[in-house]
Design brief:
GO terms for molecular function: ATP binding; D-alanine-D-alanine ligase activity; metal ion binding; ribosomal S6-glutamic acid ligase activity. This is ATP-grasp domain-containing protein. The chain has 12 helices and 15 strands. By secondary structure, it is of the alpha+beta class. Among the domains are: 50 residues, no CATH class; 69 residues, ATP-grasp fold, A domain (Dna Ligase, domain 1, 2-Layer Sandwich), CATH 3.30.1490. The strands form 4 sheets. The protein has a 5-stranded antiparallel beta sheet with strand order 13-10-9-14-15. It has a 4-stranded antiparallel beta sheet with strand order 1-2-3-4, with helices on one face. β1 and β2 form a beta hairpin. The longest helix has 14 residues.
C-alpha cells in the first residue's frame, strides 16, 4: 500500500490542527430511528412497525396524513424507490456506469467475472499502479484491497474480493485515487452535510514516544461517547512502514497515522466540513444522486485533493443506506441533524 499521505496530512494541518479543532464532547446518543418515526408522527403521518423476525433491522411503513405519499423505512433509511435503484447502488460496477453516463469524474477501471482472472490480470498489468481491487457486490468495505502494485498482491486481492463478495459478485479493478475521502449526504437537491473520514493519527511533540501519544489519544477520545466505544486499533506494522516504532519520538508537529483505515470501528476521525466544502464539489454530489434513477436520499462518497477545489474531486460511490449517526455525531465540527432533514424533505412534498 502506498504511504503517500501528503494530501491527508495537508488536510489535517489546515482543517484540524491549525484550526485547533477539538474532539467534540458527547455524553450519549439519541436513536435516529426513533427520532425519525417520532418526528413523522408529530406531523400527523401514520407510522407502522413491521415485525420481521428474519431481519436484524427495524422496519416501518410511513404514510402521509392525506395518504398520497407512502414510504418504507429499514433502519434509518427512508425511501420509496424501486428495487432496481437498490440493485444499481448495491452493485458498484452498475453505479459506475450510471455515474459515467452522467459525465461525472470517476476512477478509471473495469469489472470482471469470477472466471475471468486471466483477462483481469492482463488489464491490471496495463493499468497505472497502484490500483484498488474490490467486489462489485458486497456490504460496507468488505473485500476491498487498496494499493495493489504487483501480481502477487493482485492475486491475493482477487481471491479476497471473491471470498467477501456476494455469490453473484464480479471483481472491480480501479485506479487508486489519492486524497481525502468525503461523505456528502444529499436529500433531493440539498447537500445537508459533508464530513471527511480521517484515519487515526497522533501528532509528535518532540518529547513523547508514539506509544505514549497513543495513550494520550485514548484519553482525549474518551469525551466522545461513540469514539470512546470504538477505540483506535494501532497497526504497528503500518506504523513501522512510516518509519516509527512504539518507542520512537516524532518531531514536533509530525503527523503519524496509526492504521490504513478510515472506518469508525478502527478509530477514525469524522470531521464536519459542510461549510468549508466548495459548492462545485457539493454539486458533484447532487449530480451523483440524480444519476441513479428514482433515488431521493443518498450518501455520496468522493475523494478530493483539496475540499476547496472542485477540479480535484472524484466520485467513488452512491449509497442508499448511509449511516445517519456519522453526520449526527462527528468527532470534530458541527453535528448535523440529518434525521430532521429527511422528515422535512418528505413533509414538504405533501
Amino acid at each position: 500500500m502506498s504511504l503517500d499521505y501528503s494530501l491527508l496530512k495537508k488536510f489535517v494541518r489546515q482543517h484540524m490542527l491549525e484550526a485547533n479543532l477539538p474532539i467534540n464532547n458527547l455524553a450519549t446518543t439519541v436513536d435516529a430511528i426513533r427520532s425519525i418515526t417520532d418526528k413523522f408522527a408529530e406531523r400527523g403521518w401514520s407510522v407502522s412497525k413491521i415485525q420481521d423476525e428474519s431481519s436484524r433491522h427495524r422496519k416501518h411503513e410511513i404514510k402521509s396524513p392525506e395518504g398520497h405519499i407512502e414510504l418504507s423505512m429499514i433502519g434509518g433509511k427512508v425511501y420509496r424507490h424501486p428495487v432496481s435503484t437498490e440493485q444499481i447502488c448495491r452493485r458498484k460496477h452498475l453505479t459506475k456506469k450510471m455515474l459515467d453516463l452522467a459525465s461525472l469524474p470517476t476512477p478509471a477501471g473495469a469489472d470482471f467475472g469470477p472466471k475471468e482472472q486471466g483477462v483481469a490480470r492482463a488489464f491490471f498489468e496495463m493499468m497505472p499502479k497502484p490500483v484498488v481491487v474490490k467486489p462489485t457486490d458486497s456490504g460496507s468495505s468488505h473485500g476491498v484491497t487498496v494499493g495493489v502494485t504487483d501480481l502477487s498482491s493482485f492475486n491475493s486481492a482477487w481471491e479476497y474480493a471473491l471470498d467477501e463478495g456476494r455469490h453473484n459478485s464480479n471483481v472491480l479493478i480501479e485506479e487508486f485515487v489519492r486524497g481525502v475521502e468525503l461523505r456528502a449526504f444529499v436529500i433531493g437537491e440539498s447537500v445537508v452535510s459533508v464530513f471527511a473520514r480521517i484515519q487515526p493519527f497522533v501528532v509528535g511533540d518532540q518529547r513523547s514516544t508514539v506509544e505514549h501519544l497513543v495513550d494520550d489519544l485514548g484519553v482525549a477520545r474518551s469525551v466522545h461517547y461513540r469514539a470512546h466505544r470504538m477505540p483506535v486499533k494501532v497497526d504497528w506494522d503500518f506504523v513501522l512502514k512510516e518509519g516509527y516504532e512504539a518507542q520512537s519520538v516524532p518531531d514536533s508537529g509530525e503527523i503519524v497515522f496509526l492504521n490504513s483505515f478510515n472506518y469508525p470501528s478502527m478509530g477514525s476521525f469524522l470531521v464536519d466540513v459542510t461549510g468549508d466544502t466548495a459548492e462545485g464539489i457539493k454539486d458533484l454530489a447532487r449530480r451523483a444522486r440524480a444519476s441513479i434513477p428514482s433515488l431521493e436520499i443518498a450518501g455520496v462518497d468522493l475523494l478530493v485533493e483539496d475540499i476547496s477545489d472542485t477540479s480535484t474531486a472524484t466520485v467513488l460511490e452512491v449509497n442508499t443506506a448511509a449511516s445517519l449517526d456519522l453526520h449526527r455525531y462527528p468527532t470534530h465540527g458541527s453535528p448535523r441533524q440529518v434525521d430532521e432533514d429527511i422528515v422535512e424533505y418528505f413533509d414538504s412534498l405533501r
